[in-house]
Design goal:
It is found in: Endoplasmic reticulum membrane; Golgi apparatus membrane. The chain is mainly α. Helices cover about 65% and strands about 5% of the residues.
Length: about 270
């Protein structure tokens, strides 16, 4: 009744399609190779452009950290004189530029007294915390919690100074200044604070003279520095000149409450 393959008699088996599959088609292999090579070239271009974009933005906003520590003893001494006694600085306030890689770049601090650095801010910050510990010890209030509070207040004060500088530049349309430049400018306040705390340890009443003086000096230093950034490095439009002066005045006045708040150790 049925043959050996189990099919009814008289029924023909359907013929198998003998056309080659996609993996045996030479045209399919060539087209897939072209697609893979095209995607590879596109992906490489995309990664290269993304890498260049990230690198340019990192250099644009953060710059090279090693640049800010390229200092020597002579630079530190001269820079402290400019920060603590800006009235007696007879030189210019502009930075020295040089061509590097087909574009202008600024010389490191070791060759330019007006270049920002991070060595002085970090050393001054550490000195201020140590001096605050000595002050708390003389007052009989030294505890780990008290020194931790002073450390936190110092960080908050540094961040507040950075917000003031960043807000000033942003309001003037100059948000492209490297962030580490502003961190350095904001951290210079601890140099004046450390000197005021030392004077307080020597003679308590000198605090009421040194704090206003250091606040005034820091305000003058920042005003002259930020005017250079606004008018020279950023080349801002003159139509904002009156608003710039108001912001610069606010920045200078803000140094007084900031200094007294950070200098009120043990209060």
């Amino acid at each position: 009744m049925y043959n050996n393959y189990g099919n009814p008699p008289g029924m023909q088996m359907p013929q198998q399609n003998s056309q080659p599959g996609q993996f045996n088609n030479p045209l399919y292999g060539a087209s897939s190779g072209l697609i893979r090579s095209g995607l590879g070239v596109y992906g490489e271009k995309f990664l290269d452009s993304s890498s260049e974009f990230m690198q340019s933005n990192i250099n644009r906003y953060f710059s090279n950290p090693q640049y800010y520590f390229h200092v020597n003893d002579q630079y530190v001494r001269n820079k402290l004189k400019v920060i603590l006694f800006p009235f007696f600085h007879r030189g210019h306030w502009t930075r020295i530029s040089e061509p590097v890689g087909g574009r202008l770049s600024y010389k490191p601090p070791i060759y330019d007294i007006n270049a920002p650095d991070l060595y002085i801010p970090f050393m001054a910050f550490g000195s201020f915390i140590i001096l605050a510990g000595f002050t708390l010890g003389f007052m009989g209030k030294f505890t780990p919690e008290a020194i931790n509070l002073q450390f936190s207040r110092a960080l908050i004060g540094w961040a507040f100074q950075l917000v003031i500088l960043k807000g000033l530049l942003y309001s003037m349309g100059g948000g492209e200044v490297p962030l580490l430049d502003l961190v350095a400018y904001g951290g210079y306040l601890f140099a004046g604070l450390s000197l005021a705390v030392v004077a307080r340890l020597i003679w308590a009443y000198s605090y009421y003279v040194m704090m206003p003086w250091m606040s005034l000096c820091m305000g003058v230093f920042l005003v002259r520095t930020m005017k250079r950034v606004l008018f020279t490095e950023m080349r801002s439009s003159e139509r904002h000149s009156s608003r710039q002066h108001y912001f610069l005045l606010f920045m200078a006045i803000a140094q007084f409450p900031l200094f007294f708040w950070l200098g009120s150790i043990g209060a």
